[in-house]
Design goal:
It is a single chain. This protein is of the alpha/beta class and 350 residues long. The chain contains 13 helices and 11 strands. The strands form 3 sheets. Strands 1-2-9-6-5-3-4 form a 7-stranded mixed sheet, with helices on both faces. Strands 7-8 form a two-stranded antiparallel ribbon. It has a two-stranded antiparallel sheet with strand order 10-11. Helix 3 crosses helix 4, helix 5 runs parallel beside helix 8 and helix 6 (175-192) runs parallel beside helix 10 (258-275). The longest helix has 18 residues, at 175-192. The termini are far apart.
């Protein structure tokens, strides 16, 4: 097992290793005082791991209640959030108790936002069950729900008290969902680690899962500790996301997985930037080859006008400019501010 310590507004550990789900009760008992908790999960994860999680918790003396939401992006909504508030209240969950997010990014974001706002904030634990959630969304404290105007536009920063990433649960993921997580893994190689990127270009990371997940978490740890609230350096973690979120909205939430939309976004923005000389020659081709090696897409039939209209609501936009993330070469990145009129011209190069 690997342990990565995060020192943000609160300090907590991210545990990465095999067989951790069966130990979750013991691991959680070491960091929380209350013996009452609510497990929030989705219907698919519940069928696989709900009973095992509850059994481990009850073995350590926890009183456990459980709520499930439908799997998929549409559950990251105010409707489901209000239902969770009512569930917690009806079951007398108090400020001294805690919540567990058992699932992928949707469950983690929804549960985290619920924990941040219910009774003005109670503790929560992340038990991510997808590759994408283990390397990215479960760590760092970003929580949110979607609104009609866009993805993750309503949320709050709320750090978990513990993250338990059991690599064994990834064995039940379909090839498609595993590849979705690889979109975020490739992102980490592009922005911070040429060594990681080179390993990813070989494909088939199954034998190195624990090390690769731990490296991604360590990269995120370093960034979050420097900029917890997303005002500067942390923006670099959104490489590919400005276009990626626009693509998700264009195709309809749930019609393309987040990591695959980010993969397309990374390549499109890198290819366009290379044409302007903002990225070293050949970088886009390296990225394309790495995406292909990990069963990820890199293109989409979408116009500059469509990307522009769908992306100017991005959280990285100010009144008259937008900040985009570029990787001049593999393993390095920067933040470039563009006036909206220049951004519109830039998009003609995609």
């Amino acid at each position: 097992m690997k342990k990565i310590r995060i020192n943000a507004s609160i300090s907590y550990d991210v545990l990465v290793g095999k067989g951790l789900l069966e130990q979750c009760g013991e691991l959680i008992s070491e960091v929380v005082k209350s013996r009452k908790c609510a497990v929030i999960t989705d219907d698919m994860v519940d069928a696989l791991y709900g009973d095992k999680t509850v059994k481990s918790l009850e073995k350590q003396g926890f009183y456990v209640i459980k709520a499930t939401v439908p799997h998929g992006e549409t559950s990251k909504s105010h409707e489901k959030l209000i239902a969770l508030y009512n569930f917690l209240s009806a079951n007398d969950i108090t400020r001294s108790d805690f919540i567990i997010a058992l699932g992928g990014g949707v469950v983690g974001d929804l549960t985290g936002y619920c924990a941040a706002t219910y009774l003005r904030g109670i503790d929560y634990v992340q038990i991510p069950t997808t590759l994408l959630a283990q390397v990215d969304s479960s760590v760092g404290g970003k929580t949110a729900v979607n609104i009609d105007a866009g993805k993750n536009l309503v949320g709050v920063f709320k750090q978990p008290v513990l993250v338990i990433a059991d690599t064994d649960v990834l064995s039940t993921l379909s090839e498609e969902i595993f590849a979705d997580g690889m979109g975020e893994v490739v992102k980490y190689g592009m922005i911070r680690s040429a060594r990681l990127f080179d390993r990813l270009c070989q494909g088939n990371i199954q034998d190195d899962l624990e090390d690769i997940i731990a490296e991604c978490v360590s990269i995120k740890r370093d960034v979050v500790q420097n900029d917890e609230h997303d005002t500067g350096e942390r923006l670099t973690l959104n490489f590919g996301h400005t276009f990626g979120h626009a693509i998700e909205k264009y195709l309809g939430y749930g019609n393309i997985a987040h990591g695959k939309a980010v993969a397309i976004g990374m390549y499109m923005i890198t290819s366009a930037a290379e044409k302007l000389g903002l990225v070293n020659s050949g970088t886009a081709q390296k990225l394309k080859s790495c995406l292909e090696a990990n069963s990820l897409p890199y293109s989409l039939d979408i116009t500059a006008d469509e990307i522009y209209s769908l992306s100017i609501g991005d959280k990285k936009r100010t009144s008259d400019e937008i900040r985009i993330i570029l990787c001049p070469d593999v393993g390095s990145c920067n933040i470039k501010a563009m006036k909206l009129e220049d951004y519109r011209k830039f998009l003609e190069l995609i």
